[in-house]
Description:
The complex is a heterodimer of chains A (313) and B (341). Chain A has 313 residues and is mostly helical. Chain A is 76% helix and 0% strand. Chain A has a domain at 95-306: Orthogonal Bundle (MetI-like fold), CATH 1.10.3720.10. Chain A contains twelve helices and no strands. In chain A, helix 5 crosses helix 8 and helix 8 (178-207) runs antiparallel to helix 10 (222-259). The longest helix of chain A is centred in the last third of the chain and has 38 residues, at 222-259. Residues 168-172 of chain A have low confidence and may be disordered. Chain B has 341 residues and is of the alpha/beta class. Among the domains of chain B are: 101-171, no CATH class; 250-338, no CATH class. Chain B is built from eleven helices and 14 strands. Chain B has an eight-stranded mixed beta sheet, with helices on both faces. Chain B has a four-stranded antiparallel beta sheet with strand order 2-1-4-5. In chain B, helix 4 (126-139) packs across helix 6. Chain B is globular. The mean pLDDT of chain B is 90. The A-B interface holds A 209-211, 213-221, 229, 232-233, 306-309 and B 56, 58, 85-91, 94-95, 97, 99, 102-108, 116-117, 120-121, 152, 154, 165, 168. Chain B: Its main location: membrane. Chain B: It is found in: Cell membrane.
Amino acid sequence: MLKYIIRRVLQTIPVLIGVSILVFSLMHLIPGNPAQIIAGEGASEQTVRQIEERLGLNDPIHIQYFNYMSGVLQGDLGNSVRSGRAVSDEIGARFWVTVELSFYATILAVFIGLMAGIISAVRRYTVADTAIMVIALFGLSMPNFWLGLVLIDWFAVGAGWLPEWAKLRPSGWGDSWRQVILPVITLGTGGAAIIARMTRSSMLEVINQDYIRTARAKGLTDRIVTYRHALKNALIPVVTVVGLEFGGFLGGAVLTETIFAINGMGRLTVQAITQRDFPIVQGAVLVLSVLFVFVNLIVDISYKLLNKRIDLN
Amino acid sequence: MEETILDVRGLRTSFFTDEGEVKAVDGVSFSVPKGKTIGIVGESGSGKSITSLSILRLLAENGKVVDGEVLFKGENILDYSEKQMRGLRGNKISMIFQEPMTSLNPVFTVGQQISESLTTHQGMNKKQAMAKSVDLLKLVGIPSPEKRVTQYPYELSGGMRQRVMIAMALACNPEILVADEPTTALDVTIQAQILGLIKDLQNRLGMSVIFITHDLGVVAETCDYVAVMYAGQVVEYSDVRTLFRRPRHPYTIGLLKSLPRPDADQEKLVPIHGMVPSPFKMPTGCRFAPRCPAATDLCREKLPDLFDDGEGNQVRCWIYDEEWPGPKEVDVFGEERIAKG
Lengths: 313, 341
């Protein structure tokens, strides 16, 4: 097991290098000169040249990449071209906000998704099953920016029960859980729907397996057969989906944070894009990618713990 | 007369599908004497597995026992509640299956899976059950059981897994073991080991065995009585010696003729022509009539009952009834049978 974990961790290294190359080149393939942007519209040719020189924009691209990466490895992601503050500080202030938002959304998605999926599978072809699957289809089809706006309209503006924005401090979600509810629902609904459908189909597949018949032949109750013998097997593919969903939430947070005016990584990225603040965009995408790779590493390890048959060594 | 532990009478099981009712088992009767082995033989789709699943009421959701009785020690267990049935399953009546590779749950250890029967039925705690599991693995001839008990099914070979299945089935000392083609998926040498093991354990523990198989060789080796099934019905029931020496139903005769036998003077194997009828389009008369070389109009029109010869042997064929319209001496797949009529 330990050998597997070490191997799996080592495997992420080439992935991370690939990700960094991709992110770095993408930023440099985008048209527009950052030096020009920093200098402003009316700046002289010479000022632009000076800035280019300072940022090292005239070096060959692989040198630029090398310089950037040696900074990254020392925790230096460069400076914002707008505020001049260190990118790592800008991101650091907002990183946990997004992680927390995605984490809560994942918990919501897993909780609702698993419950709905199990009920659907156990009561297959009944009214309850059909109702759950129709709702799940709705959840899946709704774009979350739209869902967010509808929720704000109903519960914040209309009923006035919950705030329409989430005032977040760098320290986290702070005092008011009420602020969390709408953004988390907005972000987590789609994931809940996917997990519900996945759990249902996985359960139905497992229920027809020979070992379920064996379990019943032992005289076990339906409850034990369903929740002990079937569920543990059915969860194996669901775990993968949960990991991917968490990654998806990190990306999905861009919209949700914008709608609810949450000061997280998503909103930071959107602002940086509109301001062409490329070091921030680059840093944010890199951090999110690394996080995504890391989450999938955890998924793979838990996968191995759940499924004893997987033997990658 | 031997004590009968299980008596199946007029069992009918149907599956209700979108295309209509499928009568998978349609009139199956046999009895299981205490401590003896009864074989249920038939080709794929003859309803032998469904018969065994019907006894334990482990059918798929769309399957239902529509008629008949299953008397376990004189009580009709078809009337039992689900809770009462659970008390029987794995406790009084156990079952092992054809596919040892897929019949064990991949995410639990061997020990956990055997222990479950013990904690469920015998009220043992986990520690006691685990200790008993080791004993059971020893009983079914698994080397170093203390190590095996903590292993997962994927770490075991097919033969080992079937031994684990048997250990699991025998955990609570059942009175009946239903073995549904337990050796079909195994290598021939392993088959012989498993058959020997079942036989040996039966002698030691005194249980009855219902042995479901398509292999007449296995029947000859293990069974005391045999029920031959064809298209959802029992067509012949007799003790194993009678069945092999003097089979009476044309289907049984055909089956034995199509089997290579070192002891008989066979010039060549005789195949049974044609196919098993589709469950959606069963013949109105005798179900074997379309393939039977001796079939008459009566056979094609009217389904025969199981006729008893007064010695406990039964056959579902018009030849052995007064109404038989054909010749007195009937040629069935090259063998001569004297008609009753």
